[in-house]
Amino acid sequence: MKRLFFAITLLLAFICSSCSDYLDTVPGDKYDDNTIWSNPSLVQSFVYKIYLGIPYPYQWYMSASLVDEAVPIQNDGVTTRVLTSTMTPDDQGAFVNNWATCMENWWWKEVYANIRACNLFFSKIEQVDFTDNALKQQLIGEVHFLRGYFYYLLMAQYGGVPLIDHVVNIGDDYNFTRNTFEETVNFIVNDLEAAVADGKLDNQTDKTRATKGAAYALESRVLLYAASDLYHSNASWANGYEHPELIGYVGGDREALYKAAKAAAEKVMVLGYDLYKGDSDPIKNFQDLFLQMSSSEQIFITQYDKQTMPYWATDWIAWVCGAPSYGGYALNQVTANLADAFENADGTSFDFATQKATPYAGRDPRFYASILYNGASWYTNSWGSVSPSTINITSTDSNNGNTTGYYIRKFISPSENDYYYGSRQPEPYIQIRYAEVLLNYAEACLGLGEEPLARGVMDQIRERAGMPDVPDTETGAALLARYRNERRVELAWEGHRFFDVRRWMIAPEAYVAARGVKVENGAYKEFDFEDRAWNNSHYLIPIARTEIQKDPALIQNPIYK
Question: What CATH code would you report for 57-105+277-561?
């Protein structure tokens, strides 16, 4: 029944795509407001529709192409504004509604529409006559999680934002001031704690919906962000900004935030999740991790399969990002910057200059599971014999010369995927997984000076990957650098890197030229594929001028004019 409701609401979302910005009642073309809130089944459908606000990761441009993980081959203002640090309140590039739907459901107006739906639910739920009170409490927990999730999307982009906990209707006062960053973090944490309070989510096992594990995992992420360098920099990057309380902590206890992030991760770590270990071959195991309908590593997922979402499904990444000889458009290509971040199999750092004769030998198994490179074995698809079984960046996979020399392999099934010509990948997208929670825990431990604990959980991830343990002798800055690199390769293209380089304040290092690799006179050579630039304003996203015109009480983020 749950899947039936979800499928119905997905269909309604397409039918009603031209409706107003405000969330329509479900189904909006047949039932009025009183009918919805007098029928528990329709209330469930209303909640399921709110889940449609969770961001969809596979778009024409991925978030990876807004940072040093990938390059967008059909580059235009959607991405260049971000990559060259030229966003303005009048042109936010990917962070406002755009033709490529890059960062879809992260956009200010869309997020607040989903928050309004949550607030509408809270304003109506007590009048609904539920015979099953446990179900009612579970739905309340789910909507607290969803509202916390939506405010997290805003916090990560803008810092402190207006915290609206009631329904705003046409004609109401729209003059909402921004809450402080600290208040925004606290609001999110309070919503996530409310989601699990009194056992609301104790019996929830459907990972496409909010669970106790998902709530604590998101809380660990939010608190880790809150403890990060950017928000404890005394706004040193902001050119004397007059409202530092909107973009970080003014004072505050950073150690307490690290402790809280660690504690939230620990609450997930005792709930029975585990790293996926379905195959003894670490390469196949890491590849298969993202192709499972269900696994112990999944915490929060979205089912973008062809049964529930006929057009936008998980095979979209294969069609849009796949290698050209396999039917893909190769629109988001892997940078050499990222490819070089994968260590050698013995745990030493990879160095292209000294290893360029055989750059793809003896690397981290995750490299082979994540990236298609020149000479990489792939599959022969079932719709034609023209596709080779290996990648060739000098001919069939040259993309007419417009190539970094690397394509995405992660997320793509070699056995079920025929791109747009046959059967589709059925697996869901993992929004939150256990490896991230372990990495959150490790980072919090590093922030607290608890290096042995950090190494311990990093070693769990590395062992699963077929990599050696972090040396006990590695401490301080070296261990922190190792951790950041581990997070980079483990979570590549999963939507973390864009915000990680900002909260760590290493964006100037990330927004250098995107590099590629080519074969020249029979030898590999790295080259600058695309120039990029950094401006400190881009630590946060500008609030659209149209939003400020509607709400003059809003204060713009630093440096933007």
Answer: 1.25.40.390
